[in-house]
Write a structure and sequence with these properties.
single chain; alpha+beta; 60s Ribosomal Protein L30, Chain: A; Phosphoribosyl-aminoimidazole Synthetase, Chain A, domain 2; six-stranded mixed sheet; 24% strand; flat; PurM-like_N; ATP-binding; Phosphoribosylformylglycinamidine cyclo-ligase; ATP binding; PurM_cligase
Length: 340
């Protein structure tokens, strides 16, 4: 039977080897609340200590993937940071609702299971979890040659956090005269890669070439992992400084910030307040992409936006490196977000 299954494209021994090799790195993410992690039928996470002192506790969950950035990782044969992207896409989302991260699960589907590649991927996931105070407590690894071809694979993640009901970050907390503070991105992050890849192909850009203005090949520049904002932002949330937040992903600054603006108010954003990173200029020129589409697809240098009271602005700027005031909340205009 094993021989027949392997002939069908599924290597059970490779799967067992991969699990064995990642166990120790996964354990480095665990806190004392993890009762059962990988290897069992289900993971277990104790809540007694977590819930202590949290009135009206609310669980916050988020799930996401990395999209076609995976294709760049496969082409560059570099898989050790794509897991950071996966964690960031989920962890940054739940952070915008004020949640303290608790635990993370992942799904990895592959065409051909290669333990060395799996080890790189999970190393990145574990790194992202450690940076985000998430315990990596379980996941699924599936070899499906009928779905994925050769070296192709897909990643999905699931994060759970906790917040007191009364301390949730919501649009209802936002007031006129509040200030929008932008936190810098690391580059493209994990959105817009279908367009990125289209530009690379049609403009005949070389992923292995280092272009003017960069100190590494284009492929590695594009693989710069999505920035994790937990360490910079959660202390501000705990201090009651942040009223609302937005993770700037697909849809750009306007599309995502609009989720945090209540009816009757508008976030007026000064587009000249920050410098757009060089990677976006390269992509725009090479692909002949107009400004409106660039703003709709990419973060253009702002990876997260915080809405704070005017008196809290200086505290945020002092605590978060390279944070910059990018706008102000005013009485409702024509749209929830106005770019000037």
């Amino acid at each position: 039977m094993k021989h027949g299954y392997e002939e069908a494209g599924v290597n059970i021994a490779a799967g067992e080897q991969a699990v064995s090799e990642i166990k120790e790195m996964v354990k480095t993410t665990h806190d004392h609340n993890v009762l059962a992690g990988i290897g069992g039928f289900g993971a277990e996470y104790a809540l007694t200590d977590v819930l202590a002192g949290v009135p009206e506790p609310v669980l916050v969950s988020g799930t996401d993937g990395v999209g076609t950035k995976l294709r760049i990782a496969i082409e560059m044969q570099k898989h050790d940071t794509i897991g950071i992207d996966l964690v960031a896409m989920c962890a940054n989302d739940i952070l915008t609702q004020g949640a303290r991260p608790l635990f993370f699960l992942d799904y990895l589907g592959v065409g051909q299971l290669k333990p060395a590649t799996v080890k790189q991927i999970v190393a990145g996931i574990a790194d992202g979890c450690r940076q985000s105070h998430l315990s990596l407590i379980g996941g699924e690894m599936a070899e499906m040659p009928g779905i994925y071809q050769g070296a192709d694979y897909d990643l999905s993640g699931f994060a759970v956090g906790l917040v007191s009901r009364r301390r949730r970050l919501t649009a209802e907390r936002v007031q006129a005269d509040d200030v929008v503070v932008g936190l810098p991105s690391n580059g493209v992050h994990s959105n817009g890669f279908s367009l990125v890849r289209h530009i690379v192909e049609t403009a005949q850009l070389d992923l292995h070439q280092t272009y003017p203005g960069f100190d590494q090949p284009l492929g590695l520049e594009l693989l710069t992992p999505t920035k994790l904002y937990y360490q910079a932002v959660y202390p501000l949330i705990e201090a009651g400084i942040v009223q609302a937040a937005a993770h700037i992903t697909g849809g750009g600054l306007a599309g995502n910030l609009a989720r945090s603006i209540p009816a009757g108010l508008t976030a007026v954003i000064d587009r000249q307040a920050w410098q757009v990173p060089t990677i976006f200029s390269l992509l725009q020129r090479a692909g002949k992409i107009d400004d409106d589409e660039m703003r709709q697809v990419f973060n253009l240098g702002i990876g997260m936006a915080l809405i704070v009271r005017p008196e809290a602005v200086q505290t945020v700027l002092n605590r978060v490196p390279n944070a910059v005031v990018i706008g102000k909340i005013k009485k409702r205009g024509e749209t929830a977000v106005e770019l000037r």
